[in-house]
Design brief:
There is one protein chain. The chain is mainly α and 430 residues long. The protein has two domains: 270 residues, no CATH class; 98 residues, no CATH class. The chain is 71% helix and 3% strand. The protein has a three-stranded antiparallel sheet. Strand 1 and strand 2 form a beta hairpin. Helix 5 runs antiparallel to helix 6, helix 6 runs antiparallel to helix 7 and helix 10 crosses helix 12. The radius of gyration is 24 Å and the shape is globular.
């Protein structure tokens, strides 16, 4: 049996099938959301569905190229790929094209390219390379710092564009680090800081400091009383308590000087921070409009939906960004609860499939890469779905393989199919 035949047999065709099902269903909904009465063919490049079909065709070429390259290439040149990705993000400051207030694209005529979509795969490669190094031990603080630096460098550059949604995705990597042995204290610190931030905005810093002091001192007393030998931990706890109070005092500065106005408005809407009903209603009409229209559209679909191209909210352009961030509203209105459940099932099935194959990897580089892919896809999927049904504020995170856009589709395709290539090569010892 030839080497090529063996490779074809080892490819995870089920994941590929799920990929094309999601891409295909996504295109059907993009078509429904963007088709007009002046229809002139599915390849009409003046329409979004025509452009997306070209992006899908280009993705097939990308898939063939990825699967044709030796698996060792991705590990061997991961650092170089990562540096190129960082340089592409830096280049936006000079050559970037401003769209809707964000300099996130390179413009070549009417064609635009968003490097942040490709930086995800580059970061996954770099992190997998570092963690799989025989000299790396994630329990060492210095190695933890290097891992954090690899993860945080791209989102810091992305925030300068500014693009908070794309930067937020990199939080998913910390779950991968946890899977690889990162002490859980970091997750607790992150969760605590987010909780303190929200409570401080909601209640004010005085009440939050009082609550933190009561809880912190009570915990320290219990530790100290239980065992005198734990005085070192008590000192650490006191230091953490002081740091927490310092963070609480800095919340207002962060909120009013670091966050942009549209970020503040979204927090105000979700947390109900504005007491003036007139101002709150104005914010709701501005930043709650998308979510309200999305919820109405999805709710109007009922169980079976209104039918393909029969969605009145979809055809009436009630939901902004319905081809991109809010594409799932088309599914909910035209295909109903049943169709939405099928789409969610396909995503969950793909995620579970990736996790299953990642756990089977003999090579640590491949395993870390697989878990990173699953984490990023899950973050996008969960936040996007939560956004369109009102669980999360609008943050500009697309639905993988569904939302319109060449950069997004190509980025997710590269991310997934590098893992499929690594997985197909897992029997071979590197």
């Amino acid at each position: 049996m030839s080497r090529e035949v063996k490779f074809v047999k080892k490819i995870d065709w089920l994941s590929i099938l799920l990929y094309f099902l999601l891409v295909g269903i996504g295109w059907i909904n993009i078509y429904s959301a963007s088709v007009t009465e002046s229809f002139s063919g599915v390849l009409d490049m003046s329409q979004l569905y025509g452009k997306q079909l070209v992006f899908i065709g280009t993705s097939i070429i990308i898939i063939i190229l990825i699967l044709s390259i030796e698996a060792k290439f991705y590990e061997r040149f991961s650092s170089i790929i990562y540096v190129i990705a960082l340089l592409s993000l830096l280049g936006l400051m000079v050559f970037g094209k401003n769209v809707n207030g964000a300099t996130s694209w390179y413009g070549i005529g009417s064609f635009t390219l968003q490097p942040s979509e490709f930086a995800k795969a580059a970061t996954v490669l770099a992190l997998a390379k570092y963690l799989s190094d025989i000299q790396t031990n994630i329990n060492y603080f210095s190695h933890q710092l290097i891992s954090f630096a690899i993860i945080l460098a791209p989102p810091l550059l992305i925030m300068l564009q500014p693009d908070a949604g794309s930067a937020m995705v990199y939080m998913a990597f910390f779950f991968v680090l946890y899977r690889e042995g990162l002490p859980p204290i970091y997750l607790w610190i992150g969760f605590t800081l987010v909780l303190l931030f929200i409570i401080t905005l909601k209640l004010g810093y005085i009440y939050t400091i009082i609550g933190t002091l009561v809880f912190g001192l009570a915990s320290i007393f219990i530790i100290f009383k239980k065992e005198l030998k734990r005085r070192r931990k008590t000192t650490l706890a006191l230091t953490s308590l002081v740091a927490a109070i310092g963070f609480i005092l800095a919340v207002n500065y962060i909120f009013y000087n670091v966050f942009q106005q549209h970020h503040r408005d979204r927090f105000t809407l979700v947390l109900g921070l504005e007491k003036d009903p007139v101002k709150l209603e104005k914010i709701r009409k501005t930043f709650g409009f998308n979510t309200n229209q999305s919820e109405i559209a999805i709710g109007s679909g009922g169980f079976w939906g209104k039918g393909w191209q029969k969605g009145t909210r979809t055809k009436g352009d009630f939901v902004p960004e319905q081809d991109t961030d809010y594409i799932f509203t088309t599914v909910g209105e035209e295909w109903g609860f049943a169709g939405s459940t099928v789409v969610i099932f396909l995503f969950v099935f793909l995620l579970l499939r990736i996790l299953h194959r990642a756990e089977q990897q003999k090579n640590k580089f491949s395993r870390v890469y697989g878990y990173s892919v699953a984490a990023i896809l899950f973050f996008h999927f969960a936040i996007n779905i939560g956004m369109v049904i009102g669980l999360f504020p609008t943050v500009g995170i697309p639905l993988p393989f569904f939302s319109y856009g060449g950069s997004g589709l190509w980025g997710f395709t590269i991310l997934l199919f590098i893992f499929i290539k690594l997985d197909a090569n897992r029997i071979n010892e590197w």
